[in-house]
Write a structure and sequence with these properties.
Layout (H helix, E strand, L loop, with lengths): L3 E7 L7 E13 L3 E7 L2 E6 L3 E4 L15 E4 L4 E4 L21 H5 L28 H13 L35 H17 L13 E5 L5 E5 L4
């Protein structure tokens, strides 16, 4: 409560891309993972914790953050004499976002660079996992065996879960089938590449269903394309 956060929100140029916006103030808590955030003076919305990043305002205190004890040196018996209040030395570390890490565009509420959605080609494997060198040889071997057993998890390429399926209830039983839009040859190359990548990642699969909807290419701020589907009847 009271903390400032950045929110991962759709950009104004393209609602399919996300960027960090803010900072905004947390004004309420809903359950264990949802927070009420004041996005404007007259609007409060609920966001999941995954859509938030803590934001820290830089402070410039005029006084020290803690009371330092006054120490003098006794040259006669080589003793250090504490002549002031004892200090309880503590150290802490907090992962947060500072003002230097947020651009002026983010502070003003304008669109900033969109976040990458996924890696198509795997660049990290189980071999990139660093095992604590302080473990014994037997313990390191046990960890490596465990990593190899679950090697599919240790990848920077997203996977598709098979633990649950979502069933879409249609308003009509008659299949919806529309012809594809005419696409220039140069754009067709983009569609073919994106289709091959999504097939390889298991995001999509081949189907002979009676339903068909045309593809739509949406140009992203970096000049590349995002493949979408127009399900409108």
């Amino acid at each position: 409560m009271g903390d400032s956060v950045l929110l991962l929100l759709p950009t104004e140029r393209n609602k399919l891309t996300l960027a960090w916006r803010g900072p905004y103030k947390v004004v309420g808590i809903v359950g264990d993972f949802d927070y009420r955030v004041e996005v404007s003076p007259d609007k409060v919305k609920t966001y999941h914790i995954n859509m938030q990043k803590r934001y820290c305002h830089r402070e410039c205190p005029t006084e020290p953050a803690f009371n330092r004890s006054r120490v003098s040196w006794n040259s006669d018996d080589n003793d250090v004499i504490n002549t002031g209040q004892d200090v309880d030395h503590q150290a802490a570390s907090v992962a947060c976002v500072t003002e230097e890490e947020v651009s002026d565009e983010a502070m003003s509420g304008k669109d900033v660079e969109a976040l990458p959605l996924y890696n198509v080609r795997q660049r990290e494997t189980v071999d990139d996992v660093i095992v604590n060198p302080q473990l014994s040889a037997k313990q390191r071997n046990q960890v490596k065996d465990l990593l190899v057993e679950y090697k599919e998890i240790f990848s920077d390429v997203p996977k598709v879960t098979h633990l649950i399926e979502h069933k879409v209830e249609l308003a009509e039983s008659e299949p919806v089938k529309r012809k594809p839009y005419p696409i220039p040859y140069k754009i067709q190359e983009v569609i073919d590449k994106e289709t091959e990548d999504m097939l390889a990642m298991g995001i999509i699969e081949r189907s002979e269903a009676p339903y068909a909807s045309p593809l739509v290419l949406v140009k992203k701020p970096d000049g590349s394309y995002r493949v979408c589907v127009n399900f409108k009847i």
